[in-house]
Amino acid sequence: MPLKQMVYCLSNKYKTLFFLIFVVTISACKKEVKEEKKEELIVYQPSEMANLMNEFYEYNASLKSAILSNEDLEQMPERFLKIHSAEMTDSSGRNSIFNGFAPAYINSQMKVLDTLSRLDLRTRYNNNINMCLACHKTECVGPIPRIKKLLIK
Ligand code: HEC
What we know:
Elements: H1 3-44, H2 48-68, H3 96-111, H4 121-139, H5 144-148
The chain binds heme C.
């Protein structure tokens, strides 16, 4: 084989080799990226209970602003009763303390709208937020500073 031809063949072979290495590297990288994404999804997927808690938060934030501006109060959404069954991030979280506070909270949440109560509206509202805090003190301390902002001073 003339030298020129040999160099050509060789480089073609190398070309193929480099191409293969390139493809393998790219697909390996892609795989890694995909796996990372999967992990993120698992880590950041909020539980049914976490979503419900955020609805508790939003509802009470809207009660607070309605109270402060003397507007009509929205009824407690019925789905809040899901506190008794919603799946939690930590399945062992549904312990006797949680199960004791859950009905007490629903009760105090409904009392906020009880116009026959002898307690005034702001007291009923704050009592309810203190019920959130009471359960959170033992069951989930992270959101406490956020929940405290719901109190009407
Ligand atoms: C019976 C106990 C209990 C009561 C009452 C309670 N919480 Fe929670 N809360 C929890 C637990 C447990 C979690 C963790 C849930 C999970 O991660 O599955 C949580 C989580 C949260 C979170 C974080 C959600 C997230 O995105 O991870 C917020 C915010 C929150 N609660 C606000 C409130 C507010 C506001 C109230 C009252 C209106 C309230 N909670 C009443 C036990 C309670």
